[in-house]
Prior knowledge:
The chain is elongated. Helix 1 crosses helix 3 (53-63), helix 11 (265-278) packs antiparallel against helix 12 (286-309) and helix 12 (286-309) crosses helix 13 (337-347). Strand 4, helix 5 and strand 5 form a beta-alpha-beta unit. The protein is α/β, with parallel strands linked by helices. It has helices at residues 12-23, 35-42, 53-63, 72-78, 100-109, 129-140, 161-166, 178-188, 201-232, 236-244, 265-278, 286-309, 337-347, 360-366, 376-380, 393-396, 400-406, 421-426; strands spanning 4-8, 27-31, 66-69, 81-84, 118-121, 148-151, 171-174, 196-199, 318-322, 351-355, 371-372, 385-388, 411-414, 430-433. It folds into two domains: 4-199, NAD(P)-binding Rossmann-like Domain (Rossmann fold); 213-433, Rossmann fold (3-Layer(aba) Sandwich). It starts with a strand and ends with a strand. The chain has a six-stranded parallel β-sheet, sandwiched between helices. A six-stranded parallel β-sheet has the order 11-10-9-12-13-14. The structure holds uridine-5'-diphosphate-xylopyranose. Residues 155-158, 212, 215, 219, 253-255, 257, 259-262, 264-265, 326-327 line the site of uridine-5'-diphosphate-xylopyranose. The site of uridine-5'-diphosphate-xylopyranose has 19 residues, from helix 9.
Amino acid sequence: xxxxxxxxxxxxxxxxxxACMADLGFDVLGLDIxxxxxxxxxxxxxxxxxxxxxxxxxxxxxxxRLRFTTSYEEVGAFGDVHFVCVGTPxxxxxxxxxxxxxxxxxxSLAPYLGRECLVVGKSTVPVGTAGRLADKLARLAPDGVxxxxxxxxxxxxxxxxxxxxxxxxxxxxxxxxxxxxxxxREVYQPLGEVPIVVTDxxxxxxxxTAANAFLATKISFINAMAEVCEAAHADVKQLSExxxxxxxxxxRFLNAGLGFGGGCLPKDIRAFMARAxxxxxxxxxxxxxxxxxxxxxRRARMVDxxxxxxxxxxxxxxxxxxxxxxxxxxxxxxxxxxLDVAVTIGHQGGQVTVYDPxxxxxxxxxxxxxxxxxxxxxxxxxxxxxxxxxxxxxxVELDPEVLGQAVATRKIVDGRNALNAETWRSAGWHYRALGxx
Length: 437
Ligand code: UDX
């Protein structure tokens, strides 16, 4: 008899995991404490934008293998394997991660565990959390029931969540027993041939933070080179291309521009530094401070470049901003470099109008003080400066002539090194980009 799965927490990770596991043939019950979200999910409505996910969700609901609840009692009775996918945001005013939702999930679930089962943490947590939660689980479970814990970090990217879940490049499972390993191997068996790395709890937790720290470092490395290129009148785009042919380096995550944002990389590197400090290993990660600082400096540099093009001040200047999401194919605006730049320019007196293909609603809720356009053309109408801040394909394909007729002055800063400089210049645009002459 196949395992019955539950998924606690229905954010990007939880919804995708629940829907994809149902697609693989498991009976899945998802839980969230947000009743409205659960109602929408049960109606087949996706509360986030994620390509391809709504179809998988609906398929699951229609098959009868997938449903959602707010009841921990139901989840406890239903599941053989419980995946915990709740958020671990950055604490207010601190670098450390707030793992209180993780603790709350374990505390709520444990009393309802009536039989042998496996609880699997998937969220990104500070190393040492799994060991602590295993003790808590054992303490809070009913007498005579011995639930086990495992740690199974998730590496999915927003925009590719379904693909990354169904075709992962690796699976990492941190376990304390052969039984837990066997259960997780069986759960992931329908995925076919995927490298599985079996570790202890601490290593499994660290793999995820190390992976994100590496990716952030790679982006900040090329952005540091962009700073040097700016000082030396060199071209970071050509530099990056030349580096990419060395397959020890590789070209992915080597796009210089406005830098990284989103719900993961920024907060994960900060939480990693905070945790290393607690462990007395802070020196090992001091470089991440620099990675973070380089990243944040790109946003400041973008504002400076825009101000320069505006003639030295944003007062009385109309700025058209293309992009609000932290990256293309996402409506996520968490720590979005694009919105950060738009808001800063607004504070400095610029009249900012923002357009994004799908993140406008989220942006409007978070920043009602900005103006929003219904299209790229509307956002740039009458603009003295245009800023491309998220490299949506529809922005990359914009016709400089058509855009040129809408703006007041043909000036653009390409914050993502996504446009063809020559095409724009030959259409009469003053084109500037980060890290390029
Ligand atoms: C990331 C990790 O990739 C994923 O494995 C982990 O599970 C969660 O965090 P995600 O936040 O979805 O995924 O975004 P990602 O595609 O990694 O991009 C992160 C940020 O880096 C974006 O703001 C993107 O614009 C920026 N970026 C990426 C660059 O600035 N340059 C690059 O070359 C690549």
